[in-house]
């Protein structure tokens, strides 16, 4: 086995594998094959980085579908050059370039380089985070990062687990809320016995701007979408605490059973933070589980300047963090944290072959005990570890501050310009607005929709859109510290000139 790095620094030697049949398996005989393949893949990435000038090629679905479906999967290619040429044609060339300032649409952050280096290690070594015998250091690296996140939150007896994304973390938060309520109030184990007869009356309160994963998750939990009570929001689209109290009282009057409140720290459409302290006080009054969906707003944990916007988050029973939204991590990387570590007992299941009941888990830990839907689980935590070890929290926090500053400057530009109508300021980096030229009588929703679509298929700019009270608006998600106010001006000019030309046309 060759472990000497210098062997690989020069152009990698020809395949050394004695057994050609096994040359594609990653094992001690195939170091050169592995090195060459990854080197060629990396060249393609560098090519993407240097030569991608706009965020999208503008390719139409039918064209790319044809290209993908015309390939015969049963006829393998000759080598990696052919392979990467094909991957480039059907994928990389048309991939959305999140790293460019002209991409300002959804919650896709640019990624940091230490996390990409970690990905190389994660995929090849391929640890699985379920048990100690599949991931020794990985078990404790994940735990340490959960503890680190807990400390940033202000938790003292917390625990948690890395998940695939915010949707899964929110699912886990609501599952814990549901099962905790059933055990403690009804003496009923949903894990063992399924839903109790009262379950169709369980109610979960979330603002009308909360993420739609809450609806999906209520459905998955057997409560139905009907269990989500949408609480009205204030002028800045944050949950109205008085309205929350009224909504809870109304449900109680109807004989329904309040179980949990979901507060959103950073809404997907406006980037604003629900009043966490007031909501926590109401949750305490009514003895309800408080879950904070901080999938987006968790980035504020990193910022010295803006951390106070999350004050009160430490009062939550559970919290969703998406490192792949706001910590510059590659997809996927998320966590669910609980204030009280013992609540994770609610999701523990044992299997004799993996995590037997009689095992002492203080002696031989098993993260699988805390995971709801993944047994085999990626070692995503290493990306955040490498990021913190090279960059430190402080630098990540500066990136977060830069985005918030850019968003504030953008809001000012939109407010000053009579051709634009801005709906709300943002605590983070999301701005919802529309092109609304002065006296013009036109269907503004159709006009703004047309602007968005035509910019997208030209590929030069990707902006998002959303509906508020039935009207279509454009949406910027500013999540890239590289983006400057000058970049934003260019995008706004493009929107305006496209708007005017659409009106004339
Ligand atoms: C993106 C988002 C989610 C869902 O997270 P995924 O990682 O996409 O599953 C949940 N809540 C909020 C507020 C989000 O912005």
Automatic annotation (TrEMBL):
Protein name, entry field: Decarboxylase
PANTHER family, per database record: CYSTEINE SULFINIC ACID DECARBOXYLASE (PTHR45677:SF8), GLUTAMATE DECARBOXYLASE-RELATED (PTHR45677)
Keyword Lyase: yes
Molecular functions per Gene Ontology: carboxy-lyase activity; pyridoxal phosphate binding
InterPro entries, A to Z: Aromatic_deC (IPR010977), PyrdxlP-dep_de-COase (IPR002129), PyrdxlP-dep_Trfase (IPR015424), PyrdxlP-dep_Trfase_major (IPR015421), PyrdxlP-dep_Trfase_small (IPR015422)
Any one Pfam family match given in the protein's UniProt record, by short name: Pyridoxal_deC
Cellular component per GO, a single term: cytoplasm
Similarity annotation: Belongs to the group II decarboxylase family.
Residues that bear N6-(pyridoxal phosphate)lysine: 325
Obligatory cofactor(s): pyridoxal 5'-phosphate
Flavoprotein listed as a keyword: no
Taxonomic source organism: Chitinophaga flava
Gene Ontology BP term (one): carboxylic acid metabolic process
Superkingdom of the source species: Bacteria
Keywords associated with the record: Decarboxylase, Lyase, Pyridoxal phosphate
Gene3D superfamilies reported in the protein's UniProt record: Aspartate Aminotransferase, domain 1, PLP-dependent transferases, Type I PLP-dependent aspartate aminotransferase-like (Major domain)
